[in-house]
Design goal:
The protein is mostly helical. The chain contains six helices and no strands. Helix 1 runs antiparallel to helix 4 and helix 3 runs antiparallel to helix 4.
Amino acid sequence: MGVCYPRPTVAGVGLILLIFSQGGNGNDYWRFVFTGFVIGSFGAILTFLALNVSIVQAVPPQASGVAGALLQVCLQIGAVIGLSVQAGLYSRVNNDLSDWKGSQFGFWFIFAWMMLTGLIILAAYRPEKSVQVLEQLQEEQQQQDVKVAEKAPQGDVTSQMA
């Protein structure tokens, strides 16, 4: 099972374009801002989809709904914290949203946060360990299924279906 990390990189390229766009005056809008938003959004979508699939596949089928819900809760809390920090960074420069420096501070914050989480993932993520744990949980589930099947009466409908 190979591990591929292109998604956050794509989002990072979009953020770099936004950081250095200087507000997108004139033709710089199409060159930096528009392109940065398109590339960054595409990277964020790829990252979200890969994360969602990875989380759901990393747990037993019975717990996939809970894992998906926990991911959504974490994403919502992260969005609230991120937007709060960004709002503070925007107002840091003359309390004026038309000044691009506040936006640059916000984009730098997002970029730094992305790099920090990327480093944490690179340091802590062990796909082999996830596979071992999942195999162990599947074996336990099979053993429980065998015990349930052994306890079922022979005339039971469930035992006839198997």
